[in-house]
Amino acid sequence: MNVSIIILATIFFPIFFGAAILSVPEFRSRNHLLVAEGAGLVITAVLAGCTLGSAETELFLFRLGDKLDIYFHPDSLGRIFAAVVTIVWVFAGFYSFEYMKHEREEKRYFGFYLMAFGVVLALSFAGNIVTYYLFYELMTLFSVPLVLHSRTKEAVMGGLKYLFYSLCGAYMVLLGIYFLNKYADTLNFTAGGALNRELAAGNEKTLLIIVFFMILGFGVKAGMFPMHAWLPTAHPVAPAPASAILSGLIVKAGVLGIVRTVYFLFGESFIRGTWVQTAWLTLTLITIFMGSMLAYREKVMKKRLAYSTVSQVSYILFGLALLEPSAMTGALLHMVFHAFIKVTLFLSAGAIIYRTGRTNVDDMAGSGKEMPVTIWCYTFASLALIGIPPASGFISKWHLAVGALQSGTGIFTWLGPAVLLISALLTAGYLLPVTVKGFLPGDDFDCGNLQKKEPNLWMVVPLIIFAAMSILLGVFPNPLTEYIQTIVSAVL
Amino acid sequence: MVSYLVYGLVFWPMAGAFLSCVLGRRHKKYRDYFVGGAAVLEFGLASALLYQRITGGMIGGIIGQPGICGMGLSFTVDGFRAVYVCIAAFMWMGASLFSIEYFAHYRNRNRYYLFWLVTLGATEAVFLSADLLTTFVFFEIMSFASYVWVAQDERQESLRAAATYLAVAVIGGLVMLMGLFLLYHQAGTLEIDKLREACRGKDVYASAFCMLFGFGAKAGIFPLHIWLPKAHPVAPAPASALLSGILTKTGIFGVLVISCKILLHDALWGSLILALGVLTMVIGAVLALFSIDFKRTLACSSVSQIGFILVGIGMQGLLGEENATAVRGSFLHMVNHSLFKLVLFMIAGVIYMNLHRLDLNEIRGFGRKKPLLAFLYLMGALGIGGVPLWSGYISKTLLHESVVEYSRKLSEGIITPVFFSAGGMKVVEWAFLISGGLTVAYMTKLFAAVFVEKNNDAALQEKYDAQKNYMSPLSAGVLLLGGLLFPVMGMLPGITMNRLADLGQGFMGLAKAGERVSYFSPGNLKGGLISIAIGVVLYLLAVRGWMMKRGGNSVYIDRWPKVLDLEEYLYRPVLLVMLPKVCCGVCGALDMLVDAVVVLLRKTVYRDHTKMSELKEGNWFTYILGSAMNNICGIMNCIFWKKHPNKINYKHKLALDYWGLRETIYMITRSLSYGLILFSIGLCATLIYLLVGAVK
To answer: Which has the closest alpha carbon to B236: B380, B100, B35?
Structure first.
């Protein structure tokens, strides 16, 4: 019972605290605001730590109807997600302290930032699809103000586009929940699936369409083709830490939703070998290639990173779609690694924008000489994303490719790894030029005007932490891998 | 003990790299000596390891760190590895000591030394690796770290060459990774010594080919040799020496793993390697002969010599069990080539650090009256040219012998031909001899240009002649140490080269030593002499006759047709322009798919309302009726009333009428009479009601 209160506190403390920041006029003063925000983040992190540290636990809040419970149950998968969310959210929050200095209306930003934190934690602790859906929608609503923060025309349009796409996806999911309510034994997440095969008998065709809808619906958030277009619009207009959160974590909520749907509600055996699996695999491979190709073409740094997210998150989806243990391990590893890597990339892009105002890749020549630590962090994260050993991306891609080869999915067994490698090549093509031009601008570059522009510690320390995570998780991946393998063995 | 040595070899340079970086911020001078010292220490460690191996104190076994990078890193030591670790350390030592003088006036040395030592550790690790995952991890670190060497001086052409180097490294690495995926899938292990058993009876050609692509890109196998001629002329000389001498050998190491650990004695695979080897050997040598840049010649020569080594590796696959000559020849040629290129590139470094030029026409005559430099160059040139009594002759003889042996067995019918028939082998043999001849020819071309001929500019020649302090005693010492090895090894092959070969051959699956080849028998001497004769003829006819412009002042001219540059006219246009354009077009269309649907919907069924918020005059009825009448009127104006068009604005007119009507109604409803009328209407209604009721 004691433990359940901790779950409650973990979820609702940041939400109410964020609401307080929004509403209490006292926080107009920057100092008060930052102290409160810092305290809020740290306390939430401690609470989350307590929840994660406690043994198997659950919390039943109330019941909406016959089956519709609001019910939390942090299982292994949710715990991993919550742990990543906590680390990233707190340090990206500290980064914002400096970054948001130049922006107006910090109060609104920090308020919603904290509220969204609570909502995302709630979503990772959710024990059934109804709870998940509820907080999934709330997450969308609370993150829209972060996207349109600057309130320029592009920002507002970007925010609305994000809202539009997310809602479309959410309705597809909702449709699925109606059907699940009828055909599943329970709406609680059950390893291996909760679909009642007797009830479902005869309706498989309809249900397959419904699974596909749910995958597409969560896929909107995860940036899966064809509904990925909100990412490259919403990311460049949002403040850098918000883009980092969006790309690193919120996008993953879609992935988590898909894992929950496929592996915990319908069960992998239901879609194995069906047209849904084939279509899903095809869509992910298209997305992987398309995302990295467009990132390669893109010149605006943050847009480039957004396309990169489109591509990389589909690595995860590809691993999930193979329905194979090793591939799923790789996918979940990539979910963790990509969170750290992409946050590093966005925060370093943000540091460059903050200190120099340069948004275009071609203008960034020589930035390595001005802000070496930032660009080094960027470089390490890039190498990790490309999959250069011993950095982390290599480990996840290894599992993905080995899984693909073992999966017995026909053409995808070899096409998958081939596309992964082509995409890795393109990843090198769109990430490394920044490093190369940054450190080696050429001998005709005027080094005389260079000044030290390294941002202060509030920005640099989170960057270093994230970059170190991107590398170290690759050098010592085994504890994490083993933990993830226990999740995988439960559902496959 | 051994495991400490191995970890020391791999991780000491990496730690030293960061120490040098820290030190370099305070004291540049100490940093330079520290790097030299680190390399000397590394050589000490490597020698200790080799000594341990020779005395047989330890051996075998895997030294590993489980858990790193998922599957763990593992190292092992055998004869081949011990020798190559030692050679790598020796080369790094030589190049590091030489660097102290060479880099004295360079900028960004801290960066350079950082990557210099990181690459050293990674290279040693590649040679020591016991499983292919470890190989791959350090191979990638090595490729990326050495990128900085090529880009060091940041000139445009350096950056371009470095980009090529990086692209080849990245593409090669990824294709190799694909090979590893496939191999792991089929064999279930990547441990090098277990691969042969694990792959027995399985079709591993696809994975072997992918790995060959990756390793071959580093080794400089045709058609992936493009980075060598571009990167070497722009990289600093000590870096070129290592790129060419040792980094290419890591690629060869990989090819050996495929050819000797996975597909041992596989004739089909041997044929492929042999074919690639012949192409690489001939094309490299021809490119070298055409080149008029000192370092570019050496770079192309590296391509060619790698081809010689590949011929040996191919032959050992074709010859099967009895492949002693091929195995020993290819191993010894690897060792020889590493050392030759160390000395020759350092000589190029001496020239460059004095003149900052490498074009043959500009450096012409620099070596006159510099006997030490000429002597050192000759050692390297005679060695690489395969002249008897120098070490290159020994390895080339072995290689040649293996080709001859195979042809003989083919013609005697002992071996059934696979791909290469007896006639084909004749071609291979002649290609081998001609390439040897080309080697002699291009080394002679360099010698004549730098050490014999006078510069066209007499004043410049005088300046060259007067120059005495052209290198420091330390550099000279290092060069002498390298240069004197070749005649010693060449004249005493029995106690030097044979022993090296004994150490190395185990790696390639050869247990027994085989019968000793008598290197200086007439038959073997004949092969060497034919090559030299071809070389002399080629030099006189091609170089002096065609590649030099005669006249008052003879000039070296570049006769190589520009369009044959694979990189500029094939790889870059296809990979950087055509493919991205096509793919971007397709992907761009996919990207816009949903957005386009949204736009389409908004233009059609979900169109925004066009109505204004408030009408200025009139009401909706008058607005719509008036618009309709206006339209009708407009049509009539066009058709019937062309001469007297009706110009009334009905919308306005109706609105005015409407206002008028409303005014009137307003006035009426406020009047007393209106009230009376309503009252009377009410009365009438009551009356009618009463009447109706009465009737009922």
So the answer is: B100
User: Which of B231, B264, B297 is a domain's end point?
Assistant: B264
What's the total number of domains in chain B?
Answer: 3
DSSP-assigned beta bridge partners for residue A72: A59, A126
Spatial distance between the Cα atoms of B244 and B279, rounded to a whole number of angstroms: 19
> Is there a domain that residue B471 lies in?
no
**CA angle, B404 then B410 then B415, to 5°:** 120
Domain end: B243, B264, B285, which one?
A: B264
Residue B43 lies in a domain: yes
Q: Residues B281-307: what's their mean pLDDT?
A: 91
Are both B182 and B69 inside the same structural domain?
A: yes
Rounded-to-integer distance, Cα B634 and Cα B637, Å = 5
Q: Report the distance separating Cα A132 and Cα A266, nearest Å.
A: 16
Q: Are residue B644 and residue B578 in the same domain, yes or no?
A: no
Whether the CB-CB separation of B241 and B346 falls below 8 Å is answered with: yes
- pLDDT at B106 (0 to 100): 79
B148 and B260 inside one domain = yes
CA nearest to A53, candidates A34, A79, A31, A73: A79
3-state class of A103 per DSSP? coil
Query: Is A425–B70 a contact, with Cβ atoms under 8 angstroms apart?
Result: no
Bridge partners of residue B73, in order along the sequence: B65
Q: What is the structure's pLDDT at A1?
A: 45
Q: Is A477 in Cβ contact with B69 (below 8 Å)?
A: yes
Closest CA to B384 of B315, B328, B304, B327: B304
Q: CA-nearest residue of chain A to B176?
A: A421
Query: B293 - beta bridge partners?
Result: B359
Are B101 and B28 in the same domain? yes
For residue B282, is it within any domain?
Answer: no
Report pLDDT digits (tens) over B384-437: 988 888 888 888 888 988 888 888 888 888 877 788 888 888 898 889 999 999
* Helical (H) or strand (E) element with A69: strand A69-72
Please spell the DSSP secondary structure of A230-293, one letter per residue. HHHHHHHHS-HHHHHHIIIIIHHHHHHHHHIIIIIII-HHHHTTSHHHHHHHHHHHHHHHHHHH
User: Are B107 and B65 in a shared domain?
Assistant: yes
pLDDT of res. B180 = 92
What pLDDT score was predicted for residue B89? 92
Q: Are A261 and A214 in contact (CB under 8 A)?
A: yes
pLDDT tens sequence across B7-27? 888 888 889 888 888 888 888
SS3 A324: coil
Residues B166 and B200 in one domain: yes
Residues B691 and B565 in one domain: no
Left (φ > 0), alpha (ψ -120 to 50) or beta: where does A479 sit?
Answer: alpha
Looking at residues B255-259, what average pLDDT do you find? 92
Same domain for B111 and B15, yes or no, is yes
- Choose the mutation target among B73, B108, B149, B174 for the interface with A, i.e. most A CBs under 10 Å: B174
8 A C-beta contact, residue B368 and residue B541: no
For residue A322, which of A407, A402, A245, A264 has the smallest C-alpha distance? Answer: A407
Q: Are B350 and B363 in contact (CB under 8 A)?
A: no
The pairing of beta strand B63-65 with beta strand A69-72: unpaired
| Assembly ipTM | 0.90
Within a domain: B339: no
Q: Report the residue of A284, A292, A421 to disrupt the B interface, i.e. the one with the largest count of B CBs within 10 Å.
A: A421
pTM: 0.87
Cα–Cα dist B80/B334, whole Å: 11
Residue B673's domain spans which residues? Answer: 624-695
C-alpha–C-alpha distance, residues B353 and B367, integer Å: 14
Q: Cβ B69–A390 below 8 Å, yes or no?
A: yes
Nearest chain B residue to A415, by CA: B178
Q: By the 8 A CB rule, do A127 and A58 touch?
A: yes
Rounded percentage of chain B residues whose pLDDT exceeds 90:
24
